[in-house]
Automatic annotation (TrEMBL):
Provenance organism: Liparis tanakae
Molecular function GO labels: ATP binding; ATP-dependent activity, acting on DNA; helicase activity; hydrolase activity; zinc ion binding
UniProt cross-references to PROSITE patterns, sorted A to Z: HELICASE_CTER, ZF_RING_1, ZF_RING_2
Domain Helicase C-terminal, residue spans: 106-223
Keyword entries, A-Z: ATP-binding, Helicase, Hydrolase, Metal-binding, Nucleotide-binding, Zinc, Zinc-finger
GO cellular component terms, semicolon-separated: nucleus
Coiled-coil regions, chain positions: none
Domain RING-type stretches: 21-62
Name listed for the protein in its UniProt record: Helicase-like transcription factor
Pfam families, sorted: Helicase_C, zf-C3HC4_3
UniProt cross-references to InterPro entries, sorted A to Z: Helicase_C-like, P-loop_NTPase, SNF2/RAD54-like_C, SNF2_RAD54_helicase_TF, Znf_RING, Znf_RING/FYVE/PHD, Znf_RING_CS
Gene transcribed to yield this protein: Hltf
């Protein structure tokens, strides 16, 4: 049973998607899986169990849950994931296409700001390396950020200052909430959304009251 649960947890983490904890409604941090095969942040599900004690139930399916039955991802595999060499991804046609677009825009108008959107947070991490190598100032917005940090990231990106970030790496799921990102006039989708409506919501973060430029949307998902 434990091996099956670890395999389920492994498949969730391997997808690189912004998996949501059903307790805090943010990206899962310190993931654990219950015996009913639902994934939560360890602090969140521990709080549920602590509050309900002997009557604790899974928030999703209402099965009985206990602290000593929670299964964590093996630490050695977590370390391997962190140390994965991103070189092959950095040189992929998709990454090269994105960087070509960003470099062209910078040559045409250095003040243009862009959103680079993916539902896979691991892919956003990979993109950080070529952005740094090419001298792009950027910020990242995903579900792992605290509310205070989210506010600060948006303020930095929205700033008209010459040294403000010109690229925001944005998790698709996090980009669906009511953000004001009118500083950006170019949106790059790096993979197809499971729900097309989330793409529209993301575009609306730029194309709203206060936008002073035309908004351009590019899908690099099929390159």
């Amino acid at each position: 049973m434990r091996e099956r649960l670890i395999e389920k947890l492994r498949s969730v983490l391997a997808s690189g998607s912004d998996e949501e904890c059903s307790v805090c409604l943010d990206s899962v941090r310190l993931p654990v899986i219950t015996h009913c095969a639902h994934v939560y942040c360890r602090p969140c599900i521990a709080q549920v169990i602590g509050a309900e004690q002997e009557t604790a139930r899974c928030p999703l399916c209402r099965s009985e849950i206990k602290t000593n039955e929670l299964v964590e991802f093996p630490q050695e595999e977590m370390e391997e994931e962190k140390n994965t060499n991103p070189e092959k991804w950095r040189k992929s046609s998709k990454v090269q296409a994105l960087m070509g677009n960003l470099l062209r825009l910078r040559c045409e108008d250095g003040s243009v700001k862009c959103l680079v959107v993916s539902q896979f947070t691991r892919f956003l991490t990979i993109l950080e390396t070529p952005l740094r190598e090419h001298g792009f100032s950027f910020v990242r917005f995903d579900g792992t950020l605290s509310q205070k940090r989210r506010t600060r990231v948006i303020q930095e990106f929205q700033s008209p200052a010459a040294d403000s970030p010109v690229v925001m790496l944005l998790s698709l799921k996090a980009g669906g909430v009511g953000l004001n990102l009118t500083a950006a006039s170019h949106v790059y989708f790096m993979d197809p959304a499971w729900n097309p409506a989330t793409e529209e919501q993301c575009i609306d973060r730029c194309h709203r009251l206060g936008q002073t430029r035309n908004v351009f949307v590019t899908k690099i998902e099929d390159v």
